[in-house]
Amino acid sequence: MWGMIATWRMALEGITHASTLLAKGERSAKAVVNAVADVEDFPFYKSVGYGGLPSENGEVELDAAFMDGDTLAFGAVGNLVDIANPIRVAHALSRERFNSLLVGVGAREWALSQGFAEKTMLTERAMQHYRKRCRETIDQGLSPYDGHDTVGMIGLDTRGSMSVATSTSGLFMKRRGRLGDSPIIGSGFYCDSQIGAATATGVGEDLMKGCTSYEIVRRMEGGMTPQDAADSVIFELEDKLMARFGRVGDLSVVCMNKLGEFGVSTNIKTFSFVVATRDLPPTVYLAERQSDRTHYIPADEAWMNDYAARIRAPIGEPQYD
User: Fold this and answer.
1) Residues annotated as binding site?
2) Which CATH number, 3.60.20.30, 3.40.50.300, 3.60.20.10, 3.90.226.10, labels domain 3-311?
């Protein structure tokens, strides 16, 4: 048995390539790192890697993380500037005994010392979109904090080993130095090959309040199905934040247990995710909350075509990650 699951439609091409590796017996670590790197390299995704939207000072500060479910080793980077493929830097850090989470200048210096390539990650298209978003929000007296779609990827290989990887450019118009949940172990990601793995996307400030990914894995360990674990954690967190904080942002998660069974939960209208297993070719699903449970269906051809057109649309037309 092998399997992969990831947040958002943008993971489809990466999972399509990586799932062939898993089918041939490759390790889950290589599969998820390669798949996330594919997303980072694609310039039309505005919330991950090359072409990601900048912070309020105009810099693309990237966050990424990797966790090995066999050893529980992890590596993560935050606020990494102008280094190609932050997921590969995070993966390399997971091999270090100490200094597993590096941020800012320290993360960049370490990446360069290890031979990782410099690359200007801010594109002209991203700057055009940045200016457009500023006109639509700040210039109108509205909050600019929007656009926070992390790619989170879980892999299970034929040996039973699991890995998880995340990557994001973070909250649109975030302040310099801001970190969300994506590089934070237990919140944006968690993986234990003896149980399962989870990864989150949405408003990091809210997801971190529930240690979301760890809690899902803990509930799977206690006997919950992945679907029940995901829904119970997300819905309980949403209720708690509404009751005690008065508001809540977007919360979405995907998870998979050691048997390759998966779950998904969301509090937004439409959340897309991608799954591939030995018995299921790479498939995009659309999820939404209905009453007390998240339901999902395969994306149809019209949705897929519309998505492909919108992410490549000239600036000025609606675009979505």
Assistant:
1) 178-181, 201-204
2) 3.60.20.30
